[in-house]
Amino acid sequence: MASDVWIVAVLIAIGAALRFGTIASQSYWLDEAATVHLMGLSFGTMLHQVHVNETTPPLYFIVAWLWVKVFGTGEVGLRSLSALLGTAVIPITYLCGRELVSRAAGLVAATLATVSPFMIWYSQEARSYMLFTFLCGLSFWLFARSLEEPSRRNLVWWAVASAGAVLTHFFAGFLVAPEGVWLVVKYRNRATLIAAAAVAAVQLAILPLAIGDTSHPLQWIKAFPLAIRIKQVPVDLGLGSLYQSSLVSDGLLGAAALAVAVAALLYFGGEPQQRRGAIVAAAIAAVVLLVPLVLAEFGRDYLVPRNFAPAWIPLAVVLGAACTVPRARPVGVALGVVLLVAFVYAGVRIGNSPQYQRPDWRGVATALGPASGSRAILAYDSGFAAQPLTIYLHGVPWSQPPQTPVTVSEVDIVGSVYQQPPQTLPAGVKLLSSRSVKGGFLVDRFAVPGWRLTPAQLAARAPSLLGPAGAAPAVLLQSA
Length: 480
Description:
By secondary structure, the protein is α+β, with helices and mostly antiparallel strands. It is built from 21 helices and five strands. The protein folds into two domains: 2-356, no CATH class; 361-478, no CATH class. Strand 3 and strand 4 form a beta hairpin. Helix 8 packs antiparallel against helix 9, helix 10 (173-187) crosses helix 16 (272-297) and helix 15 (251-269) packs across helix 17. The longest helix has 26 residues, at 75-100. The termini are far apart.
């Protein structure tokens, strides 16, 4: 046991270095910019905006609002909350594996959590996903403890962690509901009924919020075919943002092959206790993964890979069990090495490839530079660009400008390096600078002869400065 403590301590140190070491290397993206904006509001206004604009319960935003009062809203300050929680997931994963299977399985699962590209990515994101994962991990561990010892203490803490999870993300219900049912069916006593009922009461209390959130526009999800998003899930959970690569086409095949290998190892090489623990973890993970898929088929489609974070720790426990089977140890060790190498490779690939990283809006803002007068910024990446640029540029309002004429002396285009300016610019227009930015952005700045136009008219003139492009650009107005 003492050796386990030291090994987990080393894993925590490595995990913290991986999460905190590059925490500010990428700029805020669209959703994180929304978080930054919310953090600058009063507490009451922030809660109202979360209710109106977000599609998750408010717990993360409450915690983050308090966090930034101490650490600020810079990338390091705000993201450090997720990084701390992501580091804490490592010992929680160990505890889950130890409780259900064995100490060795827990160590393997914790090692995978340490270097997981999925875990590292969301540990560096100023959104709810790592608090969501952390609380789901706590719930799963306390569920495992309660299965063996349904003491009042274990059940109370399971209920607290589970309630916190569902107050962070609606998808937590797919984890805590089967846990509660399992405990009630197994023990059928007053204590388990009260604990499960308490969690159910919290879920019922936020049901109106969940129903209200279904009215929020989420067309960006359905813009990608459901079949493609299903293929992305195993790749994202395993290899992080490499799901954007050609690996997506092989995601389900790879997951199926891995499942067959794991099942064979546990069946032929595992002890009964290992198999029992792995079955519990696999069953919980299956509910988390399959129920949202069924709901998506019936029109309630919120299926995006990051929403399946509650399944990650149970799946890691299953993998840890398979890698430590006593009667097929060489094969199990080989599987563990393959998984570890794949995770490390994916992490290095993501770190060295801008196409798998968040858009470099900070670099775009630097290329734009400060405004010397009134200017319009036309961003071809539409809504994906507008909110992050309001965070990085001074004097740009969060809300879109009204459709009234404005006078600007400079018009800047944020486009792609694949776009080309026309051979002849409009009369009186002069190119001030042209800079490329990591990730394939092109930032062209133009002096214009005092154009007085509405934002829509400015957007219509974008192709005359840099084009062609499919969609109309977002328009941001900035004063000096």
